Write a sequence for this structure.
């Protein structure tokens, strides 16, 4: 997914570089970030007026929604979710659900930024490519570019395709569709 502004700035979905089962919470944990994705009771949002609600709900039902994923959290996990959210609400000095939503969204941005920077650094170290600089924003396009770079480094005169198990592995692992 890409959102482009009228002056050419593009916002891309970082999950296109991740495995299909990866979500923002797992992505942050993958890099042992100090900031974690927060929790939000989306099921209670029915109108804009709900944003002026004081405090967070304490019942478990309010913390499950279609956004929770295919397997809903257990009662123990829900208790932990509610506790973490209440602690963040208090620590952030939120005055209503709207201010908590702002805090929640800011956390998403912080996790995305920090984890993406660590991913960029790890890819630079592993394959010598920065997906932002080379404008490759999917696993397949990044794999293809890494393959081209490998061929360029190992090219010999008169040989247009190196017979190399490493390259074949790279191409095989990058196949999609």
């Amino acid at each position: 997914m890409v959102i482009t502004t009228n002056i050419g700035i593009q916002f891309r979905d970082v999950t296109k570089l991740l495995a299909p089962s990866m979500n923002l919470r797992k992505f942050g944990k993958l890099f042992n970030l100090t900031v974690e994705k927060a929790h939000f009771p989306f099921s209670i949002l029915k109108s804009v007026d709900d944003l002026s609600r004081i405090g967070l709900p304490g019942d478990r039902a309010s913390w499950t929604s279609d956004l929770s994923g295919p397997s809903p959290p257990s009662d123990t996990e829900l208790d932990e979710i509610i506790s973490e959210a209440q602690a963040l609400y208090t620590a952030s000095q939120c005055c209503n659900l709207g201010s908590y939503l702002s805090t929640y969204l800011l956390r998403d941005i912080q996790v995305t930024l920090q984890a993406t920077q660590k991913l960029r650094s790890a890819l630079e170290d592993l394959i010598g490519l920065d997906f932002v600089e080379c404008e490759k924003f999917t696993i397949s396009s990044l794999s293809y570019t890494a393959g081209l770079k490998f061929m360029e480094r190992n090219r010999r005169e008169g040989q247009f395709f190196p017979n190399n198990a490493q390259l074949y592995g790279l191409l095989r692992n990058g196949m999609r569709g």
